[in-house]
Amino acid sequence: MDFLSATLSRVxxxxxxxxxxxxxxxxxxxxxxxGLSAGEPDFDxxxxxxxxxxxxxxxxxxxxxxxxxxxxxxxxxCTKMKRDHGLxxxxxxxxxxxxxxxxxxxxxxxxxxxxxxxxxxxxxxxxYPDMVLLAGGTPVIVETSLESSFKLTAEQLxxxxxxxxxxxxxxxxxxxxxxxxxREQLKALTDVLMRHPHxxxxxxxxYEHLAYDDFxxxxxxxxxxxxxxxxxxxxxxxxxxxxxxWRIGYAAGPVELIRAMRxxxxxxxxxxxxxxQWAAVExxxxxxxxxxxxxxxxxxxRDIAVSMLSAIDGVTCPTPEGAFYVYPSIAGLxxxxxxxxxxxxxxxxxxIALLExxxxxxxxxxxxxxxxxxxVSYATSDEALTEACKRIQNFCASLT
Length: 400
Fold this sequence. Notes:
Strand order of the largest sheet: 2-8-7-6-5-3-4
Radius of gyration: 21 Å
Number of strands: 12
Organism: Roseovarius albus
Family: Belongs to the class-I pyridoxal-phosphate-dependent aminotransferase family.
Shape: globular
Keywords: Aminotransferase, Pyridoxal phosphate, Transferase
GO molecular function: L-aspartate:2-oxoglutarate aminotransferase activity; pyridoxal phosphate binding
Catalytic activity: L-aspartate + 2-oxoglutarate = oxaloacetate + L-glutamate
CATH class of the largest domain: Alpha Beta
Distance between the termini: 43 Å
């Protein structure tokens, strides 16, 4: 359609949302579909956070706020950054957006010009490359591998940097793999970045509290203080606090960048929901006691998924350090055929056939830039996860 923007032709709809929508459609038609495609905790938002939202409504805190957040939330974010990472920020260095996605988008829109490159390790969260394209930049995709536990090496990062590189997007623990970088692994990357002062770091820490076993989360500016002035540390309350629908994300970074992001937001959505902001104040300042019990449930679910998927011939499923995803390889299943005659030539073929023939919704690896794999979100009940993995086992066993 000639009327539409040419920019729009460079991007695609979110595959994770598309798979979730397809699963919902089949459920509405009466199918017993188990959805493992959405990155959304099945836990309810903690009661103290909900109470704070109700209190905000009762107090009439339902008007416009400053475009990028109320002072109380900005201060809570500063306190959190100091408490968790030893990083000092002032409220003027903080931007609050309508979810983590908008915060990242604002930063890219505020900084990218034609020809600017953004290094993105693959597999990546599906929105990173498309947001770069919408902002006029060029995504530079660097593939990791199963052998490297889906982690970028210092050598790969060094090789990807050019004079046109503006940003390096970093995500740990990762969506879609759950891979978490140790302090030593992250230090190797920051050492490279210290040699290239024109490269800025956009770190997506959304899954920081979802860290398991002996893995200890750390963020780039914490590991290398020399990067503080060119790092945008992004986060939100969606995942750890089970607040996906509240839509609050935030970022901390240099004042000039935050000011530019505010300008973008002031001409798009303006302020995030006022009530959600007050709920987020309580999330960050209030009790954190629910995090450990929730993580115990996630670890149990992770182990169920890894164990059951690893038992399938042709599937290799590494154990992730965090988040609530596993990213198995199906290299051993490519070239096979389903009982209904569907050829499995790609991981997208696999995902579509699994949904249509076994009523399990996953997301195919190509959506995240690395095949042949698929992503399972284990942020669901033990019972649903176990049944879904049984269906995946049976489906794979039926392939010839």
